[in-house]
Amino acid sequence: MTDGEPSLHDRHARLRDAQARGGAPDLATRKRRLRALETLIREHRAQIAEAIAADFGRRPVEETDLLEVFPSLSGIRHALSHLRRWMRPRRRWAGFWFLPARTELRPQPLGVVGIIVPWNYPLYLAAGPLTDALAAGNRVMLKTSELTPAFGTLLSELVARHFEPDEVVVVNGGVDVARAFAALPFDHLLFTGSTSVGREVMRAAAANLVPVTLELGGKSPAIIGDGARLEHAIERIVLGKLLNAGQTCIAPDYVLLPRARVQAFIDGARAAVGRLYPQLAANPHYTGIASERHHMRLCELRDAAVAQGAVAHELADAPADARVIAPTLLTGVDDRMDVMRQEIFGPLLPLVPYDSIDEAIAYVNARPHPLALYVFDDRRAVVERVLDATLAGGVSVNDTILHIAQHHLPFGGVGASGMGAYHGEDGFRTFSRMKPVFRQARWNLVGLLNPPYGTLFRRMLRLLLGG
Ligand code: NAD
């Protein structure tokens, strides 16, 4: 924040007062806001991709278009076409003894929603929650990551141009600003980021009893079964891992595979990288590591694992002078190594061999619940067994990543990978108070249970208690 700018509290108060004055916005207002967001992204697509590339050092426009612009726009279009139905009260059944009363759930905006955005998909992880919060009729204050300063500056300019200042506000700044932001008395706070910062955010929100949705990270496994089409599994895992150079919350973090298939995986992955990113060192379609700190962190994770006995299999050459890390498989890993204890968030992929699918399941279940889980097998029974026996935020079967792109599925974690969910109608509900309403009928029987308690009351009570 610079001198002369209103304080965070003032900006929050402005949104809160506007919401109190304006009440719940009607369908037309919500649609206008969603269309403003759509126009903002559509008209400034190239500038947005440029800003993100500047922040990352190297990020292809194609990746930003495919992984950020497309899901953002498609989420907005989905909301626009379903909003009228989402806003309707939902009829519920009144209990038998209360008939002919009627009950309903009535969606109402919560008020002012806070959104804290990480650096890895700065547009999509801002526009996604923003879409749901605006659809639900809220005003929004959004904090971008200090690691994407060019994008943050651009977004605040664009939002100021496309929205009223009491509709949506973008806040930029460092961790001190993020801390102060998390302490504001929002009506709901959605945080996307690491599990450790998520804990701090929840603590700050607790002081004001602000409800939170925490979209966190963790180690998401990919399990390859004996009945998997190996070449297909390898290509989808390698692709899911290398999009955005592995800096994706739901990227496969490690692979559990039958011991006999380890060498075939290494050979297949090398071939897949050659196909997907030919001449990787000079290939502009392979993303860089977003900051020097994360680049060093990844090099240290890899080197420490090797020093402790792991073997690194580089699948291609990376340019020596850029903040780029070559796709690398790690074998011979174990739980002493940080690479098996921390979320990797980069293009390193440990292979963990197993001797039976039960062993693979036990391995997953001995660790915190992952944000995503991938299972590759063409035998239905094996897939069902893995689905039933493990708990994860979301799953793709015989693919990676794509469950996040389903507007009809909620997206979120469980346990250490997060709480709550959003996307589509589930996001609309997250940012709405689904207010229960009981409507008494003019003629009803509840008076029969009034005191003083006499014979009629006792008869009625016998009926109520079932004899
Ligand atoms: P991070 O936790 O370091 O930072 C996230 C955001 O929190 C940033 O905007 C930062 O400014 C802010 N922040 C930092 N300290 C804070 C504090 N004390 N109080 C309030 N806010 C604070 O995460 P990151 O490095 O930006 O992103 C990577 C992590 O995010 C990974 O763990 C990844 O798995 C996770 N992630 C999760 C999802 C999801 O949808 N579940 C999506 C993307 C990334």
Q: Quick summary of this structure?
A:
The chain is α/β, with parallel strands linked by helices and 467 residues long.
Top keywords for this entry?
alpha/beta, Aldehyde Dehydrogenase, Chain A, domain 2, 2 domains, 7-stranded mixed sheet, 15 helices, 43% helix, globular, coiled coil, oxidoreductase, NAD, aldehyde dehydrogenase (NAD+) activity
What does this structure look like?
Belongs to the aldehyde dehydrogenase family. Residues 25-436 form the Aldehyde dehydrogenase domain. By secondary structure, this protein is α/β, with parallel strands linked by helices. The protein contains 15 helices and 16 strands. Helix 5 (124-135) links the parallel strand 3 and strand 4. Helix 3 (45-56) packs antiparallel against helix 6. The longest helix has 27 residues, at 61-87. The radius of gyration is 25 Å and the shape is globular. Bound molecules: nicotinamide-adenine-dinucleotide. The site of nicotinamide-adenine-dinucleotide (NAD) has 28 residues, from helix 7 and helix 8.
Bound ligands: nicotinamide-adenine-dinucleotide
- What count of structural domains? 2
Q: For the residues shown, what is the average pLDDT?
A: 96
| CATH top level label of the largest domain | Alpha Beta
SS-derived structural category: alpha/beta
Q: Measure the end-to-end span.
A: 69 Å
Task: Give the helix proportion (percent range).
Answer: 40-55%
What would CATH call the architecture of the largest domain?
A: 3-Layer(aba) Sandwich
Which value, in Å, is the CA radius of gyration?
25 Å
* pLDDT < 50 runs, ≥5 residues: none
CATH topology call of the largest domain? Aldehyde Dehydrogenase, Chain A, domain 1
Number of strands: 16
Domain Aldehyde dehydrogenase: 25-436
Family: Belongs to the aldehyde dehydrogenase family.
Active site: 215, 249
Protein name: Aldehyde dehydrogenase
